[in-house]
Amino acid sequence: MMLLNDNLTFALHNIASFFTPNPSMPLVFSSGTFWMMFLVFLPIFACIRHRKRQMMLFVVAFSLFFAFKSCGWIFLLMVATSVIDWHLARRIARAESSGRRKAMLWLSLLCSLGTLVAFKYTNFFLHSWHDIVGGNFQPLDIIAPIGISFYTFRTISYVVDVYKAKMPPVESYLNYLFYLSFFPCLVAGPVVRAKDFMPQLERTSPVTKAEIYGGLWLVMAGVVKKAIVADYLAQYSGIIFGSPETLQGYSGFELLMAALGFTVQLYADFSGYSDMAIGLGAIMGFDLGVNFDHPFRSLNITEFWRRWHISLSFWLRDYVYIPLGGNRKGKVRQYLNLFLTMLIGGFWHGAGLNYIVWGAIHGIALVVHKLCLPSLKKIPDTWPVRLLSGLITFTTVMLAFVFFRAESFAEATAILTGIFTNFDLAYLPPFVSVRYVWCIMLVLLLVAHFVPVRIYQGAKRWFVESHWLFKLAVFVIVVQLVLQFASADVAPFIYAQY
């Protein structure tokens, strides 16, 4: 009887834990908890897919529970702001006075951006003020809603598109909440726009075999990138970054490997998440677009931003760069607008000098590329030129990411100083011998990055058309690899904090 009571107590404790939020460990797609939830969710979703209202209510409930698990009751803030933006967008579309329409647009922007600033930047501003007046700063215990930046971007794009008559307002609040809370996009994008997403809610055709198995292929590719490659590479960068007092003990080569490792880790982490999100959307019959297109193939910094985090890059172009004036007001203004856009992009990533410097580096690099473009076009397009261009672009991106990853500006400058003043290639053999698995993963991902796209497309098509036993075998292999390389804890997605 005592054993039965103990088992019952244990079971009740586990059930209570499942329904208890844990903001310190946001729910991520590579966790066992999520897949347990999704395996329950998917059959129910499939049964009610064509009953639109029931399907939408079910998905919204699942998405809001997903948010609740990650940040607690504060997820209701998203619901509150969605009500405001939905009402204001409808009023904007119906208002006849341009002044009234503009006033409601600014009210919506103030609501969305005010909420974002309050949660992400309050401590930054308070800390800056205390530095000025010499006070003793104690950070406030502020927990931002999961994915607050990404759903804020979606609300802004929706209201602005309605204001500019690029799309009609969404008449059903349920439709809008479905779009805003859609769980594959909730944590870290992609930043899918309402004008691209809303028409998909009217779909009546069944989800095809190609969509389901193609989505599964993307999910498995994302799991490999995130849970195997990114999490394993993170072990070394975690040793170097965040320990400024021990940096003097590392050679320039070891610091360079940390910078290189983090660059590849960030790509694997974020593109892996995007693959999983897009794959989950495809399984459910929704096209979430493409968010990464082999960015390390880029031959210049402009091309890099057309390949890296595409949904955010285009959002910054359409809702920051173009409203600032774009290239419509002369070359000098164009260069200033480019720089300001990247500076804003850097500040969005985080409230700190490091992120601002990271954005400024990319802004300057974009301006320099635009300035040099007439001369660059005269250089022959040969493979040595392309190789050198790719190396310069990748090196710029990698060194800028040192500021992105470092805990402080002083740490970032110390790492860069060490790379350029204490570099010794003699450290290569011992480094490889000690961290050979790390090196293999790094090289394999970089090599895989340059495999022709048609090969990946062929492999995906082969998987979709293969026998179910082959699909099962591939799935089991992926799971086994994850278990083989898994660390004690599932590492959170880097972009979940943004």
What secondary-structure arrangement, pairings included, does this model have?
Elements: H1 2-18, H2 32-48, H3 52-71, H4 76-94, H5 98-133, H6 148-163, H7 173-181, H8 194-197, H9 209-240, H10 252-283, H11 301-307, H12 310-324, H13 331-349, H14 353-376, H15 383-405, H16 409-421, H17 428-434, H18 436-449, H19 453-465, H20 468-485
Helix pairs in contact: 3-7, 4-5, 4-6, 4-7, 5-6, 9-10, 9-18, 9-19, 9-20, 10-15, 10-16, 12-13, 13-14, 14-15, 15-16, 17-18
Key descriptive features of the protein:
498 residues, mainly alpha, 20 helices
Summarize the structure.
Helices cover 71% and strands 0% of the residues. By secondary structure, it is mainly α.
Tell me what you see in this structure.
Helices cover 71% and strands 0% of the residues. With 498 residues, the protein is mainly alpha-helical. It contains 20 helices and no strands. The model has no long low-confidence stretch (mean pLDDT 85). It has helices spanning 2-18, 32-48, 52-71, 76-94, 98-133, 148-163, 173-181, 194-197, 209-240, 252-283, 301-307, 310-324, 331-349, 353-376, 383-405, 409-421, 428-434, 436-449, 453-465, 468-485.
What's the total count of β strands?
0
Largest sheet: none
Mean pLDDT rating: 85
The helix-and-strand class reads mainly alpha
Helix content: over 70%
Low-confidence stretches: none
Shape: globular
User: What is the N-to-C succession of helices and strands?
Assistant: HHHHHHHHHHHHHHHHHHHH
Distance between the termini: 50 Å
From the alpha-carbon coordinates, what is the Rg to the nearest angstrom?
Answer: 24 Å
What oligomeric state best describes the polypeptide chains here? single chain
